[in-house]
Amino acid sequence: MMVTKLRLITQHVMFFALTYGGRFGIRFGHSLPCFSCPYVSGCGGSCYLMALQGNWWGLQMSTTDMMTAMGLESLAHLGIFILLVILLNKFWCGWICPFGVVQDWLTYLRRRLAIHEAQFRWLTRDRLKTVKWILLAYLLIVPLLIAHAGGHYDLHLPFCRSICPAKPLMPLFVGNVRHLALDFTNAVTLLFTILSVTIAGGMLVGMFFKERFFCLFCPMLVLIHIFRKISPVRFEKNVDGCIGCGNCQRMCPMDIRAVHEQKTDKNVLSVDCLLCMNCTEACPGDEVLSIRFFKWRLFASSRNYVARRFAQRQRLS
Amino acid sequence: MICRNLTWAALFGIGIFASAYGLVFRTAVAGTECPAYIWIDCGERIREKNGSLTQRYHIRSSGDTLPDCTHGSDFQAFYRFFRRSSSSKKPYRFDRAFPKAGYFQAVITRDNGELCLDINSRTDTRIELYVFGTCGRKKLLAHISHYLFGKASHSDETRTRGPVMQLPADLPRLCLHPSCRNYYMQTGQTYRFNYSGKDATAKTMSILENHKHLADVARSPSGIFEYTPPHDPQLDRAGPHAFKETVALVETTTSGWDYATTYTLLLNRSYLGHLRSLPGLILFGVTILTFVVGVGCKRRPGRK
Question: In whole angstroms, what is the distance from residue A115 CA to residue B80 CA?
């Protein structure tokens, strides 16, 4: 239970630091690789997706601005983002992301209410995988169109303002319902707010019935995954020791089959993996699955750990 | 014959001289004609290589022309910057830009017949700019205050701001109440002005847009002019950074002097004025209900 508890504590500390930290002078900057929503007033740090799309540090910067010191600043923000991604990689998703914590709370609530989790067909799951790439393309292309092809300025921050469910939902934690309002300024703002509210409603239901439902569509996962090969964080599988029990797949909140099915490759960190370590905790093979940081082993599966965990659960029940 | 020719030549010469003199005289007279008021118009913004922002301001007048500042009347411009937030405890990198008291003088130039001035901002600050001049028995004052979002990476040593000076004490000013000094002034928001002139009898403030008189605002018993600019559909369609200029004007006469004081409001569209919570919450509720019913009907039961 040690890893689960440590993860829960880390998640909750980071949730409060990132959601309310700004009120206590905590600022982690604008380059965080997790859904720490800048629309939350008094937040302790901002998701890099907003900076990436924006006109101060992002793709929407005009060519003349790019040639100035602002261009260098935007590169500095990108540099910090890449550094953070390389350093912690998918730990941002499984251990830090505040929106992930909200999803875990909904899952906890569903379990307490004894409602079964909804399951997708594998075909549907495979099709859904492409959505996050489409969203990434959307949030990269629209700002470029605004900056260089005369796109209407009301289309700015396209992902944050029309798709991201964190924008209307996360400000609720500071008592702000303004982002659930419809904006009748013009047709574009109305369309964006209708989309945003509808998607937020749909996602809320999805997150309740399916564990980490939004992570299936999260473009940040894709951005983080790009740097997996140069990251010191490794998720490795000792293929020879695997008995093929399938515990890893059953315990995975993202229903990843790759870890179970991998027969040759040592690194099993897939694009959907959140590094929550549920699979490693559930694996009964000694050192079959292990999480490493450079050469240091952070955690590895073991028969004893599974047995202790099972006994502990028995006692509790 | 020669005499007649000489006479004609002399008359012709006198004629030419008279017309030339008349033209010059008329121009001189036209050049010193006083406009009813002047106001400051925001022009082009240029992002400098070091990231700072140079804003061009045009000095416009109620008439077709403005008296040349080198002939007849003297126009002067003063400005100062304010920190973005008074609560900020950070020491500022460019302290010269923030004199504790007083103003820098800006150089007014003539470009294509228009009086204009350029002001450079290295950080995101609020600028307060005054232009004033005397023309005959008339004192003209224009004022603008808004935010400039400079983001200089380093100080540009070649650009100097000149000595710190004080504004003439007797200038009647239209001061915007501090609570109304937002990053972006918006339509639909109430702006309160205090007229600090010697003449407290100024009863109305005129609102002008593109030289057109829009409204007259009466002074409240507490001495405040309150104006709420209406929403502008054209501005709403134009995008969040588009703005329009609305000029507040107060004219008074005191001790034989005519005073015309203007304040230029740079109005963006309203950011919150068009938000409707109820339809949004209804849509949110209906979506949740629809999805719950949909998932409830279609889902395949799985693990707990």
Answer: 64
- Residues with Cβ within 8 Å of residue B53, at least 6 apart in sequence: B45, B46, B47, B120, B121, B148, B149, B150, B151
Task: Identify the pLDDT of residue B14.
Answer: 58
Q: E strands of A165-316, at which residues?
A: 182-183, 233-237, 289-293, 296-300
Chain A positions touching B295 (Cβ under 8 A) are 118, 205-206, 209
Reported as a single tens digit per residue, the pLDDT across B82-132 is 765 544 444 344 444 555 667 888 888 888 878 899 998 888 888 889 998
- Interface residue of A61, A108, A197 to substitute, partner B, most B CBs within 10 Å: A197
Domain count, chain A: 2
Helices (H), B40-177: none
- A-chain residues within 8 Å CB-CB of B121? none
Q: Domain limits at A268?
A: 232-316
Res B264 pLDDT > 70: yes
Above 70 in pLDDT, residue B11?
no
Do A203 and A266 lie in one domain? The reply is: no
CA pair distance B127, B145, nearest whole angstrom: 5
Of B274, B275, B302, the CB nearest to A178: B275
Question: What does pLDDT average to over chain B?
Answer: 78
The partner residues of B39 in beta bridges, in order of sequence, read B60
Q: What is the DSSP string of A234-250?
A: EEEE-GGG-----HHHH
Percent of the residues in chain A that have a pLDDT greater than 70, as a whole number: 99
Comparing A93-107, B240-254, B270-284, which segment has the lowest mean pLDDT? Answer: B240-254
Residue at which a domain ends, from A223, A250, A266: A223
| Same domain assignment for residues A159 and A256 | no
Residue A229, C-beta contacts closer than 8 angstroms, at least 6 positions apart: none
Q: How far is CA A173 from CA A18, A168, B180, in A?
A: 12, 10, 29
Q: Taking chain B, what is the end-to-end CA distance rounded to the nearest angstrom? A: 126
The pLDDT, as a whole number, for residue A111 is 93
Interface of B with A (CB under 8 A): 47-51, 151-154, 236-237, 239-242, 269-270, 272, 274-277, 279-281, 283-288, 291-292, 295, 299-304
Distance between CA A29 and CA A77 in Å, rounded?
9
Q: What is the mean pLDDT of residues A19-28?
A: 94
Residue B174 pLDDT more than 90? Answer: no
Residues A260 and A116 both lie in one domain: no
Tell me the pairing of strands A233-237 and B38-47: unpaired
Q: Shortest CA distance to A138 belongs to which of A222, A227, A213?
A: A222
Last residue of a domain, one of A191, A223, A255: A223
Do A140 and A6 sit in the same domain of this protein? yes
